[in-house]
Write a structure and sequence with these properties.
The protein is of the alpha+beta class. Helix content is 34%, strand content 31%. It is built from three helices and ten strands, in the order βααβββββββββα. The strands form two sheets. A six-stranded mixed β-sheet has the order 5-9-10-8-7-6. Strands 1-2-3-4 form a four-stranded antiparallel β-sheet, with helices on one face. A hairpin with a 3-residue loop joins strand 2 and strand 3. The two termini are 26 Å apart. The mean pLDDT is 90.
Length: 173
């Protein structure tokens, strides 16, 4: 008789934010900044078309990220914590690899990836802790920083107390 292991996963939502609105605003700004010069140069000119060819895909990327915003979540099972953002982010953190869990306010650098008020995604450099793999609805304040030997991860669970309690219980179990 084969015993089937059932992997129980608990899902935690991030803190609410308007990060999706910033992504849409960036897309509209890029489109506006691309169309105005293209029209001034002339839509039939090579430079006008090149401007659109470069800027429109970037704007579409921001719109797609905004579309996936409601899908951000943190999944905890007996072996790992998975940070998810649509199909583009899937950070798997083995529970046995976690060295520390603490809430931090992070210090900004001039370098950035996708980091706006209400959203921080991908690897973001911070002045005080270095590179952090972010999947969060905040960029700087009250970030739950999870450190492993090799990586740092930033997240913003809505119910941080319940999330940390569940994470610590899984790590001890």
């Amino acid at each position: 008789m084969n015993a089937t292991l059932i992997k129980r996963t608990r899902t935690f939502q991030p803190r609410p934010s308007n990060g999706w609105a910033w992504l849409i605003l960036m897309a509209l700004l890029i489109i506006t900044l691309a169309i105005a010069p293209a029209m001034a140069i002339g839509m039939s000119s090579r430079n006008g078309i090149l401007t659109l060819i470069i800027c429109i895909p970037i704007a579409i990327t921001f719109l797609i990220l905004a579309f996936w915003f409601p899908n951000m979540r943190y999944e905890l099972d007996q072996d790992q914590l998975t940070l998810r953002y649509g199909p583009v982010i899937k950070y798997r953190i083995p529970l046995r690899a976690i060295r520390s869990i603490r809430r931090r306010n992070l210090s900004m650098t001039i370098w950035s990836t996708v980091r706006f008020p209400g959203i921080a995604l991908f690897t973001v450099p911070y002045a005080d802790v270095g590179n952090v793999k972010m999947c969060a609805t905040a960029a700087l304040n009250n970030i739950l920083l999870i450190e492993t030997e090799k990586e740092k991860y930033g997240l913003t669970p809505a119910d941080e107390e319940a999330f940390v309690a569940a994470l610590r219980a899984q790590m001890e179990g």
